[in-house]
Amino acid sequence: MRSWDQPNKKRLHIEIIPMIDVMMFLLVFFILISLNVIPALGIKTKLPGANHSQTLKPQNNAILTLALNNRLQLDGKDIDEQSIVSQLNELKDKKNNLVVIIRSDKGVEVQRLVSIMDLLKGSGFNSISIATHNKRS
User: What are the TM regions of this chain, as residue ranges (predicted)?
Assistant: First the structure.
C-alpha cells in the first residue's frame, strides 16, 4: 500500500507589529490635537513681544484677529468691521463678563488697532486685552 505524506498545513498568523505602529500613530495624533499643538485654522499672525505679559484664563473670551491686508477675524471666522459690534453683542448675551482679546499682527498699523479698540470701547466693551508673546521664553 502506498502512502502519501500529508502536506503540513501552515498556520495563519496575524502580524501584530504593524498594527501596534498604526495604533501608536493614531494615539500621538489625537493627543496633539487635544493639546492644540497642531495650530488651529485662522490667520497666521506674528504677535508683538512683551517682557511683562499676563496669562489670561481661557473662559468667556472672544478673540479678534487683526492681520495684514485689512483682514479681520472673530474666533477664526472672517468678519468685516461693520459687523464686529453686532457679533460681539451676540457673544456678550451668551457669555457673562466677555473679554475681547485682540491678536494684532506686529505689522498692522497702530492707527487701525486704536480705531478698533475705540469702536469696542464706544460700544460698551470695557474688558479688552492685546495678545502678545512673552519675550522671556
Answer: 12-38
Domain ranges of the chain: 49-134
Percent of the chain whose pLDDT exceeds 70: 90
Q: Return the pLDDT at 87.
A: 84
Judging by beta carbons within 10 Å of its beta carbon (0-12, 13-18, 19+), is residue 65 exposed, middle or buried? Answer: buried
Query: In this predicted model, what pLDDT tens digit does every residue of 78-115 receive, in sequence order?
Result: 888 888 888 888 888 777 778 888 888 878 888 888 88
What are 72's three cell numbers? 479681520
> Would you identify the CATH topology of the domain 49-134?
Nucleotidyltransferase; domain 5 (3.30.420)
